[in-house]
Amino acid sequence: MSKKINLFANLKSDFASGLVVFLVALPLCLGIAMASGAPLFSGIISGIIGGIVVGYLSTSHISVSGPAAGLTAIVLTAITDLGAFDIFLTAVFIAGLVQLILGFVKAGSISNYFPTNVIEGMLAGIGIIIILKQLPHAFGYDNDFEGDQAFSQMDGSNTFSTLFSIFDYIQIGSIVITLVSMVILISWDKVPFLKKLKLVPGALIAVALGVILNEIFIASGSALAIGKEHLVSLPVPSSFEEFKAIIVTPNFSGVMNPKVWVVALTIAIVASIETLLSIEAADRMDVQKRYTDTNKELKAQGIGNMVSSLLGGLPLTSVIVRSSANSNSGAKSKMSTIIHGSLLLVSVLAIPVILNKIPLATLAAILILVGYKLAKPATFKHFWEKGKYQFVPFIATLLAVVFLDLLKGVTLGIIISIIFVLKGNLKRAYFFRKEQYADGDVIHIDLAQEVSFLNKAAIKQTLNHLPENSKVIIDAKDTVYIAHDILDLINEFKTTRALDNNIKVKLKGFKKAYHLENSIDTQNHVTIEHYYDAAKRVMVKKEVTDEEFLKQENRN
């Protein structure tokens, strides 16, 4: 009973969001299927399963699942190599099974290690891709399939060269409908009396008006009329037999084919990573800041892929574009994604002819605004103000996502973030000042609460550059953890180099828990309870003369 209450508690806003996502998802499902070399209806089936099945099983409130542009190259190659679409569906079923297992072994936990700046860079990159890819559709140049995210295209052109080609294919009717749609979408949230009509999303009004305008253009014989090639193109079965023929089921005889297992594992890994990235991004877009159980998400995706394959659908993942549209439309719960899947199912069965009158220019207007919200200037400013250690991984991820692909972009961003973390640990994160005293230098080295092997290089460099005849106090009174590498390094310094260079060393606060040789003070036992800021692992500073230390040394 509580499940129903949760699902229907925000039906008003969730229905409006689900409707917008449905309008966005329809051409994307068809476009991705076309690019994958699969039957067009397989993309719709994947969208329906992603919406209803995964939407119900998932714990994510914002994320939307369906066929993913990131899998198009894998799917296209796999169908060609396996020789038949029904054999490929067997690989999708196995991939779903692998994802289900990954969920049970809690592999979803790796999403906790995706840096925030990398996730935000990925979102901004996707936003820029959406804008760049939808601009041609807004001008009436519909050469590329909907959902295309690749910079380099199969026809030898790229995203930028396609933009320049717009001027050779400009269609005034598409531009008019794009501008009208933009005005409606922007004003819907700005004009006071329109806000009261929140149940009816601006996107639906824009789509309806786009269809009406084009029908008027056609009826009047105007040169502004948009042709069939610039409209949504959904398969329309003329009989029940034709509809049955659309549904393809897996050929499980392919289970014994090693290539099927290679394809299955590839899809499982790529789809799982893309899902975890999208879930992390969706959680960040959630205004209520709710968190998704990523292990349950992998299970939901696995079951979704198994069901999709049994009905002849493409592999699915959680997808950012539809999730972004869902969030921007005011979705409150996962009911919105279930509604979008239900609308896909009902519409393709009941009103495919009407759907095929929707201009791609209207959908381009919707997606361009989604892209802007993902890559708005405020996001760039935010990370710029946070400094280079936050901005560089952010901008590197963004550029790599735009010019390479999502997975390569995120991988690059994570690598750069790791390098910065290592640099922060390896650099000399301390102060060193020389001051002369009558009896030589007294240098204080205060160890931080946690000293790991990453600090070894910095500490070693410091100890090697200590001046001869100086006096050194290495203080570990605030330290709760020291790596054995560091303990060995300090012990070797005290017993060898310090003696050779007449450096007097005093060790303070080293605990019994460190198990060092007798030369180190073992006064108090301590347990490891917490960690210290990575940028302040070791602090070295020269202070006023330690009178107690000097007196002790004079006595010696």
Automatic annotation (TrEMBL):
It is a multi-pass membrane protein. Residues 11-397 form the SLC26A/SulP transporter domain. InterPro entries: SLC26A/SulP_dom, SLC26A/SulP_fam. It is found in: Membrane. GO terms for cellular component: membrane. Keywords: Membrane, Transmembrane, Transmembrane helix. The chain crosses the membrane at residues 41-57, 87-105, 117-135, 169-188, 200-226, 260-282, 303-321, 358-375, 395-422. Pfam families: Sulfate_transp. Its main location: membrane. GO terms for biological process: transmembrane transport. This is Sulfate permease, MFS superfamily.
